[in-house]
């Protein structure tokens, strides 16, 4: 395969001071690690004799080109088959991009004239989804309130925010350093319109609140408190009822004992009196018999 034409064209461009002019606009491109990014040439269609050349880094290392409508990739280890050129317009796609692919990309378009572009590509670390947890230590005594915390670990150049619908309730930002962020929020339970968002300037990750899963903690605490109070009141009432019933039973038993004792004494007196009368009657009867015999 003959690429002498592309090399000759590149030499002419260098001699004409294309890269020394420094007047071209640099387009900034931000992308998250693991995603794909496409650097566009803004060409409608590559012609047969066109030269489309992509270079990377401060040393302007050639990484891909189209010449005579033939695509060629140069053996650059850090890209490891991640590059793909569009045969129709010459745009360059970097698949599964990594942080080491951050840098300056230069494009030379040699057709009837010569044009060039520069892209300053910044690759950011993969953005994690924020995690929403229930802050049970600050649980409200009322079941209608719920205390939450949104957290994200090991991030830099991000903003962490609480939203209600599309309105920002609170936010916190960090730059440069890789740290962990947390943002508290107290809300009304049974309201799922809240979400936590961690964002770069060009993309974000959102976690929506599910109040049924997270706000039950405060409600459960309140329910347990109410349940324990009901149990305590019920036990107190039962104890009071048992005490009253016990006192009543004790009073009745004591009163019945006194009545039985009085009746026993009266019966004893009656029997004693009855026995005395009986003896008198018997003696009188004996006396009458003896009187009849003497006559």
From TrEMBL:
Protein name stated in the entry: Ig-like domain-containing protein
Coiled coil: none
Family annotation (SMART domains): IG (SM00409)
TM segment ranges: 227-249
Domain Ig-like: 128-210
Keywords: Membrane, Signal, Transmembrane, Transmembrane helix
InterPro entries linked to this entry: Ig-like_dom, Ig-like_dom_sf, Ig-like_fold, Ig_sub, Ig_V-set
SUPFAM superfamilies hit by this protein: Immunoglobulin
Secretion signal, residue range per the UniProt entry: 1-20
């Amino acid at each position: 395969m003959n690429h002498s034409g592309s090399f000759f064209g590149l030499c002419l461009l260098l001699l004409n001071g294309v890269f020394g002019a420094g007047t071209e606009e640099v387009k900034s491109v931000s992308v998250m690690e693991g995603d794909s990014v496409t650097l566009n040439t803004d060409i409608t269609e590559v012609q047969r004799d066109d030269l489309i050349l992509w270079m990377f880094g401060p040393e302007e290392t050639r990484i891909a080109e189209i010449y005579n409508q033939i695509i060629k990739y140069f053996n650059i280890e850090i890209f490891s088959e991640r590059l793909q050129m569009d045969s129709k317009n010459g745009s360059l796609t970097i698949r599964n991009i990594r942080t080491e692919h951050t840098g300056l990309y230069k494009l030379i378009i040699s057709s009837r004239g010569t044009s060039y572009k520069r892209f300053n590509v910044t690759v950011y670390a993969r953005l994690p989804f924020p995690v929403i947890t229930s802050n049970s230590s600050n649980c409200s005594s009322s079941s209608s309130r719920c205390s939450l915390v949104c957290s994200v670990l090991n991030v830099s150049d991000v903003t962490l925010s609480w939203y209600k619908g599309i309105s920002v309730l609170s936010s916190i930002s960090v730059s440069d350093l890789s740290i962990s962020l947390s943002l508290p929020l107290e809300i009304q339970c049974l309201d799922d319109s809240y979400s936590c968002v961690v964002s770069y300037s060009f993309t974000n990750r959102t976690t929506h609140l599910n109040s049924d899963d997270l706000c039950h903690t405060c409600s459960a605490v309140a329910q347990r408190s109410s349940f324990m109070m009901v149990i305590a009141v019920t036990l107190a009432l039962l104890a009071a009822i048992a005490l009253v019933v016990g006192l009543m039973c004790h009073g009745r038993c004591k009163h019945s004992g006194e009545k039985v004792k009085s009746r026993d004494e009266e019966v004893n007196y009656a029997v004693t009196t009855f026995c005395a009368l009986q003896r008198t009657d018997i003696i009188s009867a004996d006396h009458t018999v003896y009187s009849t015999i003497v006559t």
